[in-house]
UniProtKB/TrEMBL annotation:
Organism: Psychrobacter pocilloporae
Protein name: Pyridine nucleotide-disulfide oxidoreductase
Coiled-coil intervals, chain numbering: none
Keywords (A to Z) from UniProt: 2Fe-2S, FAD, Flavoprotein, Iron, Iron-sulfur, Metal-binding, Oxidoreductase
Domain Rieske residue range list: 8-104
Region forming the signal peptide: none
Cofactor(s) recorded in Swiss-Prot or TrEMBL: FAD
Keyword presence, Cell inner membrane: no
Length: 549
């Protein structure tokens, strides 16, 4: 039971099981989360700082409180951040132990002052202003780093949440300023020397040095005690004739999203690619409701075919078709055609010719009219400035993202070792994990897990429905499906083969978030269920609780 009295809430102890947690919604829409271990009680703001999910709807596994939406994890004893997507820990409240009750005072927070007194005479340079670079800088300051931090970015914006470009911004559901990581004054408030619109032309790992080139081709060098390279990835442009015509776009940056948003009004849009970027772009533009038509072209017969099974893919196709999306499958685009337009500039006789998209021609000869084309055809890691270790499939680093002593490569360019092997993964949560691990390595903080104790996670948002995926599977074709994807209520487990004793290596879901959280915790702990166990009715949530006791 609860009793609200201005800023205090009284809670009966017996309401909360030992080793468990419970959330209490308040009249002002706030949420209080209480955790219990024997007679130890702790109180926190119960909304996940990432997107506001009720943490009480998540799962507590040992001392980990896991968000049901995007699997951010917090320490149940002090609220500290253990796992992104969130970038901050939980606000902790003071409470009074009073016999059979505890009283929480939400006006009295337990402050955790940060003394930035570590490595004060050192300099860290971060190349790249994406999620990995941001999280490195942010966690360095949160961990007490007192040295100089310089961040250099090619972008003209301070670090922002790139996944929300296709999930929310393009649909008109989120303003630009809401995408900024850490808020509009993050760099100044954290004493980050942020340099935008600057190009690093070369990284010399053996010298801990970067070369910065200006617009005139002049270069300067900077050397650091710690060098973090997080240059991200570039959109892959397929070898399609006409891919350089005006009206062909990729979606990677805020500038890209703004161009697509402006250019798509009352236009016939063709999206090439059926991965999650292509599907999110289709969803966002459909939700914006400003296009004349949207057609998605895929080389295969499925959407997100390397991630989910054919059954789940068909359910996603149905969802999109119900929103007016047209699909062309098993198709290869041979050419993006163009039309020539004459423009009379300033009313004089010197007309100028411009080429614009006219449509796309497929290998079978079919022509699809289009005014703009969006390429959702994958990305390639930006490793070209790391000449000494250039690898087209990523930079091989250890489980702490270290390439050399004091030199780190992370985010989309990194191919580190984790508990699932050595792999390069282009997901936002992974980039934030890399930042946490790198900052801890620089600070020599052994209390922060390395990548070997973490697993990948991503989610895609389409028409307000969130498909979430945890782990990593080479193919979705060795699978067990529970539920009905057509009603957007399923969970699907993926395996490396058809063996009865093979353990699941990944899972995806729509609508069964708590079960996915439980699976993720079992996978992280090395106890993912086998095919035989799942077929026999394995209770994922009970097992996750049992393992954590």
């Amino acid at each position: 039971m609860t009793k609200a009295m201005i800023n205090t809430v009284t809670i009966t102890k017996s309401d909360i099981p030992n080793g468990g947690m419970k959330s209490y919604k308040q009249d002002d829409d706030s949420i209080i989360l209480i955790t219990r271990d024997d007679d130890e009680f702790h109180a926190f703001d119960g909304k996940c700082p990432h997107a506001g999910a009720n943490l009480g709807d998540g799962l507590r596994c040992g001392h980990r409180v896991v968000c049901p939406w995007h699997h951010a994890s917090f320490d149940s004893r002090d609220g500290s951040l253990l796992e992104p997507i969130a970038t901050e820990g939980l606000t902790q409240y003071e409470l009074i132990n009073d016999g059979d009750n505890v009283t929480v005072d939400t006006s009295a927070t337990i402050n955790k002052p940060i003394e930035n007194d570590k490595l004060t005479d050192t300099h860290t340079i971060i190349v790249g202003g994406g999620g990995a670079g941001f999280m490195t800088a942010h966690q360095l300051r949160q961990g007490g780093y007192g040295g100089k931090i310089t961040m250099i970015s090619k972008d003209d914006k301070a670090p922002y949440n790139r996944p929300l470009l296709s999930k929310a911004f393009l649909a008109g559901n989120m303003d630009e300023d809401k995408l900024l990581l850490g808020g509009s004054d993050w760099a100044s408030s954290n004493d980050i020397d942020l340099h935008l619109n600057q190009t690093v032309s070369e990284v010399l790992p053996n010298e801990a040095t970067i070369v910065i080139e200006n617009e005139n081709g002049d270069s300067t060098r900077q050397t650091a005690d710690f060098l973090v390279v997080a240059t991200g990835a570039s959109p892959t442009i397929p070898p399609i004739k006409g891919a350089d015509v005006d009206g062909v776009y990729t979606l990677r940056s805020m500038a890209d999203a703004k161009l697509i948003k402006a250019a798509s009004h009352d236009q016939r849009v063709v999206i090439i690619g059926t991965g999650f970027i292509g599907m999110e772009t289709a969803s966002a533009l459909a939700q914006a409701g400003t296009t004349a038509s949207i057609t998605v072209i895929g080389q295969g017969s499925r959407v997100m075919g390397n991630i989910v099974s054919e059954t789940v893919s068909n359910a996603l196709i149905k969802l999109h078709e119900e929103k007016g999306i047209n699909f062309v499958f098993d198709a290869t685009v041979n050419e993006i055609t163009k039309i020539e337009r004459q423009v009379d500039k300033d009313g004089d006789s010197n007309n100028q010719a411009f080429s614009n998209v006219g449509g796309v021609t497929l290998a079978n000869g079919e022509h699809i009219d289009a005014d703009i084309v969006v390429l959702g055809t994958g990305v390639s890691p930006r490793t070209e400035i790391l000449h000494e270790v250039n690898d087209p499939d990523g930079v091989q680093v250890d489980a702490h993202l270290q390439l050399r002593d004091g030199i780190y490569a992370l985010g989309d360019i990194a191919k580190p070792t984790n508990q699932m092997g050595r792999m390069r993964i282009e997901h936002w949560r992974v980039a934030l994990q890399h930042g946490m691990v790198t900052a801890a390595a620089i600070l020599n903080d052994d209390n922060v897990d390395s990548l070997e104790a973490r697993i990948p996670f991503f989610w895609t948002m389409q028409y307000g429905k969130s498909l979430r995926y945890s782990g990593h599977a080479a193919t979705p074709d060795h699978n067990i499906l529970f539920g009905t994807p057509d009603t957007l209520d399923y969970i699907e487990y993926y395996f490396d083969d058809e063996g009865a004793d093979t353990r699941a290596s990944a899972a995806s879901t729509l609508g069964r978030d708590k079960e996915l959280v439980a699976f993720s915790e079992l996978l992280r702990r090395g106890h993912a269920p086998t095919r035989a166990q799942l077929n026999a009715g394995f209770d994922m949530i009970d097992q996750a609780h049992a393992l954590s006791r």
